[in-house]
Amino acid sequence: MQVIHHPLLCPAPGTQRELVSLHYGPEAMPSGGQKAYIQASLHGDELPGMLVAHHLRLQLDALEATGQISGEIVLVPMANPIGLSQFLLHAHLGRFELMSGENFNRHYPDLIATVAATVEPQLGSDADANVALLRRALKAAVDASPADTELQSQRRQLLSLSCDADIVLDLHCDAQAVMHLYTDPQCWPDCEPLARFLGSRLTLLAQESGDNPFDEACSQVWWKWKARFGDRFPIPQACLSVTVELRGATDVTHELAAADAKHIVDFLRWRGLIAGDKPALPAPVGDARPLAGSMPIKSPVAGVLTFLAPVGAEVKAGDVLAHVIDPITAQITELKSPVDGLFFARDFLRFANAGMRVAKVAGKDALRTGKLLGA
User: Where in the numbering of this chain does the Succinylglutamate desuccinylase/Aspartoacylase catalytic domain appear (predicted)?
Assistant: First the structure.
C-alpha cells in the first residue's frame, strides 16, 4: 500500500491541512484494469464512514498481503480535514465550511464541455479507447482547474483522485436512517448489485439533483458526453458513482463498520478488483425510487418533537409520524406522511423550529422539481 499526502492551499501563515490517500494494487500503481475510489466523511461530522474506512483498510491490508488485489483501489479515510476541524461551543460543524457557508458536498467543477471540445477530434469507434482518452483529458482538466481557496483546493484534489475511476463510493450518513443510496438512473443497473451486498433498503435516483455534488461530478460526465456526441462516437457509462448513506450519525460501532467494509470488499471482488471466486449475490431487501419522490416532512410550528414511527416503517399517506408539542399551550401538532412510502430518515434533534425539515418518506412517484437535495 502506498500512502500519498496531498497538501491543501494554505489559508493562513502557520496553518497547513492535507488529504491522505491510500493506494492498493499491483505495486500500489494503476494496473490498467479497473479502479475503485472510496472516500469517507466528506461531511466532516458524519463519522460512520470513517470507521468503515478503518475496517476497509484492515481488510485491504490483509488482502494485499496475500496478493489478492488485482485492480487499483484508492481509499481516502478522511475526505474533509477542513470540516473535521470545525467546532463551535463543543458542537461539531462539518457539513458547511464556516468561511463561505458552502456545503462541502456541492459545487464541484463542471468540465464536461471543456473536455469534450478538447478530445472530440481524437474520438473514434472504439468505446474503450474513447473512455481512456476522456479519462486522461478529464483528469488533466481537473488538475488544471483554478483553486483560489482552501475549500476549492480540497474539491479539486478529491475530484482528481476519483474522476478516472470505474467505481466511486462516497460514504456518508443521515441523522437517523436505514441504509440507503443515491445515484444516477444511468448507474442503477451497475448499482443494483452494490445495493444487494450492502443490504440497502432504498436507492434514490436523480439525473441531476442540483448544485453538482461530488457523486454526480464523477458519474454524470459520461451520460452528458454520450448525449453530446450522440451516435457519432460510442461513450459508455464508464463510472458507477454512489453516495452510500450508512444509516444514522450515531451508528458508529465496530460490528456495523466491519460488516459494511466486508460487504464493500465482497462487491469489489464481485466486480473483479479482488481475486477469487465471485461471491453469490444476496437477495435484494429494497428497491430504487426517484429522488423526486422523496418527500420532506416539515413542521409548521415550533415545539418538542417526538416520533411515533421508527425509521424503516412502511407508511401510508395520512399516517401520523410525529407530534410537535408546544410546551406553553400544550397544543399538539400532528406531522403526517404526504405519500405512501418508506419512512427512511428522520432528524435526531428533538426540538423543531417552524419550517424545519424533520423527516423523509420515499414514495414511488416523482412529485418534486427543482433542487432535490437539502442544504
Answer: 33-269
